[in-house]
Amino acid sequence: MRSLAGDVIKQAFSQQTDEKLHRRLYAAICSCILEGNLKPATRMPPSRDLASELALSRNTVLRVYEQLQAEGYISARTSSGTFVTDSVLDNLNLRTDREPTSPTQEDHTSLSARCLELLGYASASPRQWGAFIPGVPDVQYFPHRTLKKIQDRLARRLRPEFLTYDATGGVSELKEALADYLRTARGVRCSPEQILITEGIHQALDLVTRTLCDPGDNVWIEEPGYWGIKNILRINAVNFSAIPVDEQGMVPPGASEVAPKLIFVTPSHQYPLGSVMSLSRRRQLLFRARETRSWIVEDDYDSEFRFSGQPIPSLQGLEEESPVIYIGTFSKTLYPALRLGYVVLPKALATPLKKVHTDLYRGGHLLIQAALAEFIKEGYYAAHIRKMRQLYSRRRHMLVELITRMLGEHYLGSFNSNAGLHLILQLPADSDDVAIARLANAEGLLVRPLSRYYISEEKRRGLLLGFASIEEHEMASAFSRLAGIIKAHS
């Protein structure tokens, strides 16, 4: 016998696309109830009648009714039939007369002041691969198969501690391999016990900030400097003073400047300008840190990729027991998604910061850490860096030639050292580098405006051009488009 409820269900059933008949019927009845087409207390069609109307087996209908009853959509009354549950809409808080809300609307009313401030400065690019994106290596040349073979070999004799929480600051084999590598390649003075493995630079910076600063404390950062450091300081309510950078690195401020808890520097390859901190500045900074009882946080950014001359040794290794916290990452030398970095802590800080790291972050990725340790010990890491250094050197040379030929030598920034994964394309002082970058980004050219790295009103205008993640045969065409945008805007 046909009923109005049966007609409603039949129409909804015809609109469902699931191949499984019982799932189609279940979805159809649920939508009818939740959209108000089958109102509370409505009598459901008898299972035999509904099966006949929909050309289904009665067992299929009974199976769906049982499921709906178990979930509270319908209820059976002895000798009366089956009805839509009176309270189903109240229980699900899905009344149809509610005002619709936009799925993309953001509600900031419950966010903290620190979060709102950070959102105002958020700078991470939604795309992280392509022509001229700065700070991203060419991940296609990494020997993934080699690392996977090592990882598979370790997985066949898996140690239980690789599958549980890490409470020691990383796999001991990786810390030992890193200590040997850093002593040889970067002149870092350390033992494996001083090394803490982190999930990249940001976690390392956040840990150091949280453990060594209280809200309202003051720190020094470079001007211009990395936006990620500023946002970590903002979210932790730490004040910062932007200290200018010149061709010799951070310019030591006068005695009137408030003594900092932390001093953040990139001495081997300043980010973003590219200058190298001179020996005299390094010694001045170390003296000032000891005098004010401050800690220097050395981010050894892009230090492995120097294309001429000798590598610049670390600031940390300049003195015995120096007041320096040394931070590094595998994001540039291997690939960013690996999410592995490291901190070399002064002996006095090693134990407490490892305890805090364990409690706050619950370190993991222990199997990949163990595989990476063997990757380093067996020489693959150093070999990969040598190969990529040659590749990036060629790409940098090509980009410099393109800038000179299409725009002129005066567009090459005066700070550019022959190192790193990006260079500065210097624009005239009256240029709007933010607008130029926006136009370029819209064309798929992922440049960054230099002025956004400054806090003060005195800003250099330019573009950060990464050359690591673009093939040589694509570079000329891409830069020609960028040069056209720059000329048209000028």
UniProtKB/TrEMBL annotation:
Membrane-spanning segments: none
**Family matches, as InterPro entries:** Aminotransferase_I/II_large (IPR004839), HTH_trans_reg/aminotransferase (IPR051446), PyrdxlP-dep_Trfase (IPR015424), PyrdxlP-dep_Trfase_major (IPR015421), Tscrpt_reg_HTH_GntR (IPR000524), WH-like_DNA-bd_sf (IPR036388), WH_DNA-bd_sf (IPR036390)
Describe the location of the HTH gntR-type domain by residue ranges.
Answer: 19-87
What are the UniProt keywords, alphabetically?
Aminotransferase, DNA-binding, Pyridoxal phosphate, Transcription, Transcription regulation, Transferase
Q: One GO molecular-function annotation for this sequence?
A: transaminase activity
> What is stated as this protein's family in its record?
In the C-terminal section; belongs to the class-I pyridoxal-phosphate-dependent aminotransferase family.
Q: What name does UniProt use for this protein?
A: PLP-dependent aminotransferase family protein
Q: Which organism is it from?
A: Citrobacter murliniae
